[in-house]
Amino acid sequence: MPWSNQNGGGGPWGGGGGGGNGNGKGPWGSGPNRPGNGNNPPELDEIIRRSQDRLKRMIPGGAGGGGIALLVIIVVAALWLFQSIYTVQPDERGVVSRFGVPKNEVSMPGLHFHFWPIERVELVKVTEQQANIGAKSGSNSDAGLMLSGDQNIVNVQFSVLFAVTDARAYLFNVEDPRDTLQQVAESAMREVVGSRPVQDVFRDNRQAVSEEVKTIIQSTLDAYKTGISVRTVAIEDAAPPREVADAFDEVQRAEQDEDRFVEEANRYANQKLGRARGEASQIREEAAAYKDRVVKEAEGEAARFTSIYTEYAKAPEVTRERMYLETMEGVMKSSKKVVMDGQAGQPVPYLSLNELINKNTSKGETK
């Protein structure tokens, strides 16, 4: 053997069973059964033995049955105390139930104690949470497909923001409150969408749809006493199914063209109507002015006739002759004949008849 000549014989420890060097030590200066001496790491049985020795020294009365029982009691008490103390975070509320029956008190944030295991505590987050209902556009899921009031299919994806206001009711009045909220929200959205035209969901009246859905969800959850308060319902996406998306887009473009044509027609009609109204107003103004002018002229003629009649009543002969002369003047003014009244034996003054006729003619044309 390779080690047979080390230290005069024996085994690998230098002394075959107790011996080659006469002191029973191995090459590290200790026996094979005492690995704790020197730099050799302790073996498992040595660690166990030392631990038992320490426990015996710690337990009053040595290693008797009473000391072990006391140790077991201490360990069990520590474990029970650890399980009985719990912490409630600021965004949580705790509900303690004894034998499955919840207590009326709700644990607020902080450190609390309950009698475990006969009592059990459940923690609920009371901050605002979000529940998403429906599938995104383009996905293969049909969760958000709904039938509108005008017999159109629409894929609606919406979210519900809610908060827990009664932790005890949230935990014990319904089996799965979050799943209940999902089902109630989807049912409410289907009810509202089914009673409205599809355009209300697409673009025209989303806010009114959201408010109506929120009211239905809250009333249903209150009837179930879930302890949930719905803050907001937001329609995130509303689109037709993928199979008819192209046809629907074409319909949308046609409707937009229709709206544009109607708007242009209304603008043209308003323009023509405004112009017609302006012309009608102008005609009415001209008619009123003509009426006033004719009436005034008639009144003036009547007043003139009255004044002439008054003068005629005072001097009939003079007035008659004046009227005759004025009438003859008006009649003969446009005539091209010249009448001269000269006395016999007296020279007639020279007149340029052509010039006089042309002058009178030009005046008549001007008038």
TrEMBL record:
Protein's membrane topology: Single-pass membrane protein
Main location as per UniProt: membrane
Comp. bias (Gly residues): 7-29
SMART domains referenced in this protein's UniProt entry, alphabetically: PHB
Domain Band: 83-252
Localization per record: Membrane
Matches recorded under InterPro entries: Band7/mec-2_domain, Band_7, Band_7/SPFH_dom_sf, HflK, Membrane_HflK_N
TM region positions: 59-82
Keyword line: Coiled coil, Hydrolase, Membrane, Protease, Transmembrane, Transmembrane helix
BP GO terms, sorted: proteolysis
Coiled-coil residue windows: 251-293
Pfam families: Band_7, HflK_N
Biased composition (Low complexity): 30-42
Domain of life of the source: Bacteria
One Gene Ontology MF term: peptidase activity
Region annotation Disordered: where it falls in the sequence: 1-44
SUPFAM superfamilies for the chain: Band 7/SPFH domain
Quaternary data: HflC and HflK may interact to form a multimeric complex.
Protein family (similarity comment): Belongs to the band 7/mec-2 family. HflK subfamily.
Its job: HflC and HflK could encode or regulate a protease.
Listed NCBIfam families: hflK
Name of the featured protein: Protein HflK
Organism: Rhizobium aquaticum
